[in-house]
Structure formats: structure tokens, C-alpha cells
Amino acid sequence: MSRVAVLKGGRSLERQVSLRSGARVEDALGRLGHEVLAIDVGVDLIAQLRESAPDAAFLALHGRGGEDGTVQELLEILGIPYTGSGILACSRANDKVLTKYLLLEAGIPTPEFFAFNQTAFSELGAAKALPAMEERLRFPIVVKPSSQGSALGIKFARTPADVPAALVAAFSYDGKVLLERHVEGRDLAVSILDATDGPQTLPVVEAVPQGEDFYDFEARYQIGRTSFMCPADLPGDASARAQELALATYRLLGCRGFARVDLMLDAAGELFVLEANPIPGLTETSLLPQAAEAAGVSFDDLVGRILGLARGQQVSTPGGSRPPEPPRRT
Question: What predicted TM-score, i.e. pTM, was given to this entire model?
Fold first, then answer.
């Protein structure tokens, strides 16, 4: 077995979620027989990694610093293999606006949107363009920061009067915001796990908030706030189409190892990709572990497979084999 550094915590607003993900990963790695080095990421990260000299790093970081390519770049400089997507894919997926423009260019359906930064508001008079944006998007609309996860900073604007406060909230999390047409329907997630025969989609998970009309941060992580259906009971070929769109998004962004793609299914049966998550949560209420369990993959096995991919090991699945991805640069 090997020495594995579990990188967790950090200083992002998703710190507590990351600590929970990291703790579960540490327990699983211990059961699998690995030597576990728990690292709460901070200013001494490089020193800790050099001193401990791990064989690989398991990234359980969420949000800025962990999912945006920052830590990935440092690990590549140090020559330490790590789990999940590389620098470019993380940079793309972390920026919701960039992701949506890439989706549009590739012909992958995503809700209509507008995006602008604080400079547009403070120096270019973007506020005067809001009525035109609102008319084209139609209410309600969703206002969200471009680079936060776990639904942090996301607000509903049901009327024009709600927009200013929603913008203030979004700008408090990020310097760039997204105004997006709200798709009323079913909240779906498709997780993807690489294997020797290519990336494999796991069963679709549907999140159903209890007594809420929005799958927000609290609904995601407080046990009992949301019920989950996996596999989701969807009409016709909706599950297959959701998996197809998720896989197309995964490949478009250049993800590897594992990821999760979030979608909405509207009343007319149309699917829309919202975003991709290069390091999805691994907590008790997270969607990737639920999807893996529905596919017959235990949490320990999931963690072992993700680590094996990072170290360039073959991961066998039914249906054939494929050479592992080329090694990361060192």
C-alpha cells in the first residue's frame, strides 16, 4: 500500500464541507490499508508535502484554491500525483460563466444567461441594461456568483425588485456574476467515474428539497432537508439523455478521474446542463457516493478506484479495457 496525503479544509467558504469529505476519505483509505496523512491546507502546505513525501494526494478540497487549479498546479510542480481533474479542466469548471460559453459553443443545452463583472456596474453603467436582460430571460431568474460551489451566494429573483439585493449577495462572493433563466423542474445530477474503457456515467440522482423550492446550501448538506432518488425515476429516455449530456460536458471541459454534472429537467422533457463539479462532495449527503452505491460500488471501493486512477493504475470494469490516461507532466 502507499502513503496518501488527504488535502482538505483550506480557507474557502466550503471549508466545513471539505473537512467532512476529507474525514470520510481518510477513514476509507485507512480501511484499504494505506498510510494516511491528513493535511488541513494552509500556508505550510508545501512544507508539509515536502516533509511527508506522499506517494499521492487525494484532493477533498472544495471551492477556491482546491477546485480552481491552484492546488493542482502546486502538486504538479512538486511531482506528486493527485486525484481528479487537471489544472485546465478545474479552471474551466470553476468559472460558471466560462463553462456556459463553452457549452453554448459545443451545442450542449444550458439555460439562457447574461454575465458581467463589478467593473461593468461601477464604470460602464451595466445597471441600466438590467431591464433588457430581465425581459429576455423572463422571471423568475437565478442570480449566482461565477466561481462558488455548493449553491453559495445563489439567489432567486422573482420580480425586478428582487434583482438588486440578489446582485449584492452574489457580488459579495465573487467579482463576476451570472443572471440565468430559471428552469422549473427536476434537479438532477450525473456523476462520472473514469475506467480503463473510458469515463462511465453512474445512475442519475434526483434531489428533492423537503419543504423548499430551491436546492440551496442548507438543503445540500443538512441531513433531512432533501430526499434523494437514485436511480431517479425519469420518463422515457430522460436518464440516458442526461447521462449523454453529462458525459459530453465532462469531455468538453477536459475532466478526468471523476466529476459530477448538474442538470435540470423541465416539464416539457427538455434537459439543461447547469454546471460541472471537478471535485464533488464525498459527505454523507453527497450525490457521487449515492450514485456509486446504486451502481454497486461501495464508498471504500469508490475511494480506492479514484486513488488508483491518480496513480495510473488499471481500473477494471465490465465491457472492455483501455490504456490509462497519459501521465501528468512533472
Answer: 0.85
